[in-house]
Structure prediction request, 120 residues.
Amino acid sequence: MRNFKELVTDLVKKPPILFPMVAGFHLLWLVWTFISDLGLPFPDLIWLEVVWMSAYTFFWIAVCDMKRWAAVGYITVTLLNACVYLAVYNGKLSRDYMSNMFLMDGLFSVVLLYYYKRFR
Prediction:
């Protein structure tokens, strides 16, 4: 079992430099999404963004540890978000549900697929 210092060192030094930078981006985007949704009532559909961003952030931090299950999880969450986004795009919920990182998550998933053989 690793201590916290070893974990942080592994998260920064083990992966390519792009991965920790994207993890920082995910963390900042999660905080921004949470703060921007604070004025809305809690059981609103817009709070689903915070759930998606929490999942993205969790899986990407695990990706920085070069875990294969994390890469599969991130790609799965991306596909689920894309399916939900496309399913409600033409319906009544299209103005309430928006996926802020729809294209960027697809790009990050392609990067993960490129590096997939390096994960353990």
About this structure: The two ends are 17 Å apart (CA to CA). Helices lie at 4-13, 18-36, 48-63, 68-88, 102-114.
